[in-house]
Amino acid sequence: MEDPIISLKNVSVTFCGNEKNVTAVDHVSFDIQKGDVFGIIGYSGAGKSTLARTINFLQRPTQGQIIVNGQSLIDLSAAQLRNSRKKIGMIFQHFNLMNTRTVEENITLPLLHSGLSKVAQREKAERLLKLVGLANKKMSYPRQLSGGQKQRVAIARSLANDPEILISDEATSALDPKTTEDILTILKKLNTELHLTIIMISHEMEVIKSTCNKVVVLNQGKVVENGSILDLFLHPKEVLTQTFIGFGHQNNDVIQSLDLRPKETVIEVTFINSPNEDQAKIVEIIAVLGVPMRIFYSNSQFIQQRVITNLILGIQGNKEQVAKVLRQLKSHRYNYQLTGGGRSY
Ligand SMILES: Nc1ncnc2c1ncn2[C@@H]1O[C@H](COP(=O)(O)OP(=O)(O)OP(=O)(O)O)[C@@H](O)[C@H]1O
User: Fold this and answer.
1) Model confidence, pTM
2) CATH of the domain at 302
3) Which Gene3D superfamilies does this UniProt record tie to the protein (predicted)?
């Protein structure tokens, strides 16, 4: 495998307060490969924004190393750091545009000391505006634009210095679902056409799920899961992750509402690709064992052009019979979880 474009090694950020210190980022390590759309998900206060700012050294880590393109940022002089930062664009929830400047001026602002002539700067702005589908708005002011249009301008501006990496910090959080989809489509296009590596920070799994190939889940500054988005859905390790992926919430509701029979145990099975065939196969596997079974609930989601299905079953039998069912599921490579919050009898 190629060397990662970004590598975080044991990074922590502690803010010293008068009353107590806050460790916003706590011993975080992960690698991002070139071309990844890498998601960072966590609730408010989890440390996402601090981590984003740390990745481009706007925030100095208290400890640990950040290596971008093989170069440790801690070793760079202020001038080298400024240069290195140009290779990392950023977009934010509230766009951060200059309201007194036109759209074109907002985009050419980062090019002020680029050495490009005014004409070349304007040409570049025009090219970038075309890329984000706003070619006709270059003389408008931000106040004349919708939220989605403002975010497109912010994206164009973030690309002015030809970055290799784009950090999107909750860039769609202030937008409606349709506009969110439009912005995510633009970001995906930039990833596939310009090979831009994207770090997508969000508290919404819908955003992460529809764009990212990899993801880390952050909780109280710590990475609690790290892997491919498919793995996250197939083998969520943490309850927090299950809550994010939605199965957790829905499944808990379903399980709590079940009217279980005596000796009935609830099992959640998760599988990828063929919802109907797999469901039929699971029914068959259990039927062969002669253990009574009920299907309570089934839910499929599209992730990375694949279908992930979650099935909630009730198995009526003694401990040995349940163990037999689980062994069979395991031998057929189905992921399962015994659930029910103690609601198995
Ligand atoms: N400059 C600062 N000084 C002191 N504490 C800070 C500072 N910046 C962030 N924090 C604290 O660090 C923790 C993580 O904050 P951060 O903004 O990184 O989280 P977040 O996941 O991005 O949340 P949100 O989505 O609400 O912005 C919080 O407890 C926050 O209060």
Assistant:
1) 0.87
2) 3.30.70.260
3) 3.30.70.260, P-loop containing nucleotide triphosphate hydrolases
